[in-house]
Amino acid sequence: MSRIKGLIFDLDGTIIDNDERYMELMLSRVGKELGRSLTLDHARQLWYSMNAVSRDEVISRWGLDPDEFWAIFNTFENLQEKLNSTYLHKDAPFLKSIDLPKSIVTHTTYDHTDNLLKLVGMRDLFNPIISCTEDLGFKPSPLPLIHCVVNMKLTVDEVIFVGDTISDMLAAKDAGIKSVYINRFKRPIDYKPDYEIDSLEKIAEIIK
Question: What family does the entry list (predicted)?
């Protein structure tokens, strides 16, 4: 493997996360509108794309239409409410000790990402921040990662991508980037990443 010169990270579930009370509240609101009982278990499945390539796949598995689901979800999403429920993973500050360029590729909008990272004191660590869009594509498409690598002025064999879902791993594979699955909570995925770690501190062992 070429010498690693840059690190790319997913955001939600990798760097930051949400209090489960917020997750459960959001799903209960949407469920009420759809006439379905959506619980904390549903919220966990959705947030972490459990056993699925995408969140849409999770929603479809429940017998719901993803477009209708997200239209309702987005009416309830409130930035301040999300900020109040956001916390930084305890191992994330370790990244400040790694003297390499770091960036973010996320499905979260740029403005939300900017505010969330400022909240947890990590905004200055990441540049660029690439937010997936309809034009750019969404993971597992490799295009957002490739776009990020170009912005970093590096090549795909000079970076690693760290994420917490199958979607992240597949995006890295198709982009030709080494994948690192951060698995803090012993959640198995139906995919073998290049590396699997249970703490961001173990990135040091990969890049040494």
Answer: Belongs to the HAD-like hydrolase superfamily.
CB 181, CB 197: distance < 8 Å: yes
Q: Where in the chain are the domains?
A: 6-17+87-207, 18-83
Would you write out the chain's pLDDT as a tens digit for each of its 208 residues? 679 999 999 999 999 999 999 999 999 999 999 999 999 999 999 998 888 888 999 999 999 999 999 999 999 988 899 889 999 999 999 999 999 999 999 999 999 999 999 999 999 999 999 999 999 999 999 999 999 999 999 999 999 999 999 999 999 999 999 999 999 988 888 889 999 999 999 999 999 8
Level-2 CATH architecture, domain 6-17+87-207: 3-Layer(aba) Sandwich (3.40)
Phi and psi at residue 175, to the nearest 5°: -85, -10
| pTM beyond 0.85 | yes
